[in-house]
Amino acid sequence: MISVLAVDDSASIRQAVKIALHPDCEVTGATDGADALALARERQFDLVITDLNMPVMDGLTMIRELRKLPAYAGIPILFLTTEDSGEVKQQAKAAGATGWLTKPFAADQLSRVVKKVLAR
C-alpha cells in the first residue's frame, strides 16, 4: 500500500486528502512541518502532500529539511495550498517540490495527480 504523509494545520483538509486517496493509500496526518519532519524521521513515506502556510514550520522550510534526508531525496512532494503566485511556485520548485495543487481541490483531481507523480 502507498504511504502518504499529509501535512496541513487544518484537520478537515487532512481528512479530505485521506478520503480522496482511499482505498489506494494509507494517509498519515501531520499538523505542521515540524510534526511532519519528526514522522518522516521515524518512517518512510512514498509521497508527501503539504500546505505552504502553517504554524511552527511552513511547507517550504519543511521541504528543504526533508530533501536533506537521504531517504527523501527522490520522494515526490506535492504542495496543496491556497497560494497561487508564480514567485511562490518558483520557490517551491527550487526547494524540491514535485508539483502544485490549489485549494479547494476535487478528490478525483488529487487522485489523478498522485497516481501521475508516483508513476514517474
TrEMBL record:
Q: What range(s) does the Response regulatory domain occupy?
A: 3-118
Domain of life, per lineage: Bacteria
InterPro entries according to UniProt: Bact_response_regulator, CheY-like_superfamily, Sig_transdc_resp-reg_receiver
PROSITE patterns per the UniProt record, alphabetical:
RESPONSE_REGULATORY (PS50110)
Q: Which UniProt keywords apply?
A: Phosphoprotein
Residue numbers of 4-aspartylphosphate PTMs: D51
Q: Which GO terms describe its biological process?
A: phosphorelay signal transduction system
Identification of the protein by name: Two-component system chemotaxis response regulator CheY
Organism per entry = Rhizomicrobium palustre
Which lineage ranks, top first, belong to the organism behind this chain? Bacteria, Pseudomonadati, Pseudomonadota, Alphaproteobacteria, Micropepsales
